[in-house]
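User: I'm preparing a small set of examples for a lab meeting where we compare how different chains pack in three dimensions. I only have the primary sequence for this one, and I'd like the structure in token form so I can line it up with the others. Please keep the answer compact; I'll paste it straight into my notes.
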Amino acid sequence: MNEKTLYKLEFHKVLELVKMQAATEGGKNLISKMLPSSDLDIVKKLQEETAEAIKMSIKQGKLPLAKLHEMKPILKRVEMGAILGSGELLAVRDTMRMTRQVRNYYQDAIATGQTYEVLSEQFETLTSYAILEREISRCILAVDQFADDATPELFQIRRQIKNLSAKIKEALQNIIHSSHYQDMIQDPVITMRRERYCVPVKVEYKGQFKGIVHDQSATGATVFIEPMAVVELGNEIKSLESKEQEEIEKLLIDLTNQIAPITLEMNINYEYLVKLDAIFARSEFSLKYDCRQPRLNNKGYINLKKARHPLLNKETVVPIDVYVGKKFTSLLITGPNTGGKTVTLKTIGLFTLMAAIGLQLPAAEESEIAVFEGIYADLGDEQSIEQSLSTFSSHMTNIVEILNDMSLNSLVLLDEVGSGTDPIEGAALAMSILEHLRKQQIRTVATTHYSELKLYALSTDGVENASAEFNVETLSPTYRLLIGVPGKSNAFAISTKLGLPKHLIDDAKEFLQKENVKMEDILVDLEQSKRMAEIESERAKAYRAEAERLKEEIQNERKKIDKAKKKILERAETKVKELLKAAELEADQTLKEVRAVARDAKVMIDERSLQNAKQKMTSTVEGQKKRISKITGSHKNAPKKLTSVQVGEEVMVASLMQKGIVTKAVDNNGKVEVRMGIMPMKVNLSDLMRVEENEIKEAPKKKVHGKSSASGVSYGIGKAATISTEVDVRGMMVDEANPIVDKYLDDAYLSGLKQVTIIHGKGTGALRAGITQMLRRHPHVAAHRPGTFGEGEMGVTVVTIK
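Assistant: Understood. Below is the structure token output for the 802-residue chain.
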């Protein structure tokens, strides 16, 4: 693409707006280097990436990216054999964490059933290293701050340093509070000088106080002495501190060695995170500026609807409709100064550039844009939307370069073509240039004030007039673009409005040739006809839109009525079935009572009559059920009763209206063992019905403690079979761990587990405290305690489930 054109169309300013939406420095740098593509397939892929990112952002929220350090220099040092410092290791850890979170973001997105064919490659290339990420987080708390339990040796060394420090402080406390030293001590405090514990001693007692002088006050009245009683202890601390640094050095070497085999994958992870950041920055730009995905072509067709220049205030900018390239290849725009002609040129050019880097356009749906091999603009020297500083020489220099560089698949934008010189010669040159471009079928949009060019457009096939509308009543432009209507000179009308005497206007008209006056009348008639046609078209669109809206409302009302009717029938059916069931149970109870009374009274009863009465009652109930099902239509979906079953088959137990899995085949008594939930029970084969395939809905895969469940259907037995008795949240922040522990406790409760273990590690104790606080108010927790010896001690919490 022509660099001068990119600058004049203010492409760099749009990139700055997109960069503001990026989260990482790498993403911002990638956006800064973006250049428009001339390959239609590449542009289509870029547009699809942006569209999928928008869909994903709307459904899942923003991509979980934050500030990332540049990985290449750090990983290069690892490849060279250098040892990474704590800050560099934390930078690697941050990249690992972002990679894991972005992968989880994608997994959550596809778990909803959505597909992202274009972005899937970007996400699935990412490799997660959760174990190493947690190890770095466990060992390194911050830059140059290492956890006490990073290694067993470091823990022992620091414990010894702590004990020695306590001994030194105790000895010094005895000295500063001793009556023997009371007159010698300046202040009863313990201070550090040159990393040694000292006490402030009056300078006159310097010779009497045994110890090593490490410092002196600014006034010279106080010396800071390390008493001889603690010198040896201080030396031991120094020795231990050296060992501490050696152990930290070993830790850094170990962590660096763990990173060394995956430097290539880490580089790839970083590159893809940056790419995704740039893609989602484009999507955020689209959402912020209310953009739409354009239709693309490589045939030179441009059709923009309600297009808004992205650098202008969207609350005040007037949208324009403009098209070129299909019925005509050249569009000639005329109209008053500051009427919006240059904005139209810049909008067309800038939209073409934006689409070619994958940005959606701030325009209406169904807008169409072409992918060109080159875009060339002559907008004058340092011209902007607010001002014009072009000259004839600069115009001609730019046009010569354009004519030399352009190809047949190019877009040429010319502002005030032929201006800056004698009007007759300028108009002739402009027509010559435009005709040259027209003959080569090069898409051209130009602005002008020359009447000769208006006539040229009216009389030449493939060239169309357009005008920037001007309101004579208010003496201001409307910024609307009217295609097919040439702009007319408003000099006479404006002068009359401003109060110029009528006789001067009449004299001016006399100087015009009759042909010119006639042309002005034709332009007026054309403009009026165009305006009336547009008004009628808008009315027709409004009527059609209203009809569509009413049609949709009627359809929605019908759906609501059908839905309400279905709910009423379902409730009625349920209620009637409950009443019939109650009647049946009451009949059974009555028969039992009759038999009981007969036994007590030692009276013989006609059992056959009772059975006949019960059978009649049962037949009546069944008949009423069938009648209700027929009325409500539910009989059509009634499950089929089974005559045979297979182990592992899913069935419906009719009497309980519960689904279950067959665990044992039919026995000699015609009973089948069925597992419902976690409890197996035996039921009659005749009580089982087949579950239709369309009733089994595949559930999305769920994660259980970092692992995916492969089962698509769950009836409560999955958790009991697969749930572990412990959950590991080491290395996580409290906000990350609490939801995982909460979900795990729910699953454990549903699975019937009575005791589980939460592994949180020792660390600083913040994670353990956060989890303990949550357990105190959790509804499923009966009790909880720290682990004992052999269970993990303070690194775990054992929970008793209610």
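A couple of notes for your slides: The chain has 22 helices and 27 strands. Residues 514-601 form the longest helix (88 residues).

User: Perfect, thanks.
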